Amino acid sequence: MRLKMTRRALAATGLAALVLGGGALVVEAATAASDAMVTIQNFDFHPMALTVPVGSSVTWKNLDGEPHTVTSTDGSFRSEALDQGDTYHVKFSKPGTYKYICAIHPRMLASVIVK
Question: Which residue segment(s) compose the domain that 4 sits in?
Answer without folding.
Answer: 1-30
